[in-house]
Each structure stands twice: as C-alpha cells, then as structure tokens.
Design goal:
mainly alpha; disordered N terminus
Length: 192
C-alpha cells in the first residue's frame, strides 16, 4: 500500500511520464491489486482517485506494452465511478478500443470484449448483434464469464433463439475454467 500512497505526491506522478517499462509494469500491477482490494469501499474514494490518475498517466505511453492494460482499467473506473464520475459512454468507447486492439499486444483483450458487450446491454431489450459478437469473441478467447453468460442466453432462449446444446456447451466450458455458477448449472443439468 505504501507504494501507491507515495504517488499522492505530484512530483512522483510527474516521474511516471519518464518511466522505464519494467518499473512501470510493477507500479501498474500494484495499482490494480490495490484497486481490486478497494472495490465496494466508499471511504477509499481518495485512493481510487489517485489510482485513476495513475491509470490515466500510463495511458500517455501509447508505445508501451502497458498502455492497453491502463486503458482497460481506466474504462473500468469510468464504468464503476471509481475515482471519477461514472461515464458509461466513455467507458464503452475505451473498452471497445481495447477489445479491438491486436491480441499479441493485449493482455486485457477478452476481458475488454466481455465488458464492452455488457455495456451494450439494456435490460429488457433483445440482444443486438454487436453485443452477441463481442460476447462470443470473449468466450472464444477463454473468458469463463462470457461462456457462462452465453450458456444462460442460449439455454433459456430468453433474448436469443433457444439452443440448449449450445447453452450446455458454454456452461461446460465455463465450469472447466472454474466459474462457480457454471459449475452449479452443470451439476443441476447433469453435465459432466
């Protein structure tokens, strides 16, 4: 925690602009760890603001390998209102940019595809083609949550045409990846 607290000093934030990539990756990874630990704790808004600003600073380094990771987490902060006012439209734009970036340079591609798909969903509306496309891309990339959600959609046939076999296959894959709800569904449906 002391590493992040030291970044409250504006002098240190300025030094990020001249980072070397290895130490920057360590800093970003520590930010992500602390950011995840802060989820749901409103009293930590000041820390979230500092972390959001660090993600924002890292985004200035477009040539670096951590640029897309920082962009993904900035989008996440915008979507959830961590350290900044919620902005679903801007978050959606950033998630899509990360989702559409080349895979070999993109550690967050499949998570971004999932998040982008989720931002396209409006409760009660039919699933649109773009949402389904990105959910399927995330699932093909191995994202267990995307597979679980596709399993739900296809098995129940509520927002897409029903296809129980496809739904069962998605549940099975998500369960193999350790997704708890998918594991429950597999047990309920008798899927090995």
């Amino acid at each position: 925690m002391f590493l992040i607290l030291s970044y409250q000093n504006e002098e240190i934030l300025k030094k990020i602009k001249d980072f070397d990539e290895n130490s920057a990756k360590d800093i970003l990874d520590n930010c992500l760890k602390i950011h995840c630990d802060l989820s749901g704790k409103n009293e930590k808004d000041d820390m979230r603001t500092v972390i959001y600003n660090i993600f924002n600073e890292f985004m200035q380094h477009k040539a670096s390998n951590i640029y897309l990771k920082a962009k993904y987490w900035k989008a996440y902060c915008l979507l959830e209102g961590y350290g900044i006012e919620k902005d679903k439209i801007e978050a959606q734009k950033l998630f899509k940019e990360v989702a559409d970036a080349e895979e070999n340079k993109n550690p967050c591609k499949h998570d971004a595809e999932l998040r982008y798909a989720f931002t396209l969903y409006n409760k009660g509306e039919k699933i649109n083609e773009e949402l389904l496309k990105y959910l399927e891309l995330a699932a093909e990339g191995g994202n267990a949550t995307a597979n679980y959600n596709l399993g739900e959609l296809y098995y129940k046939g509520e927002l897409v045409p029903e296809d129980k076999m496809k739904g069962r296959n998605h549940f099975a894959y998500a369960a193999q990846k350790g997704h708890p709800k998918a594991m429950e569904m597999c047990q309920t449906l008798g899927i090995d």
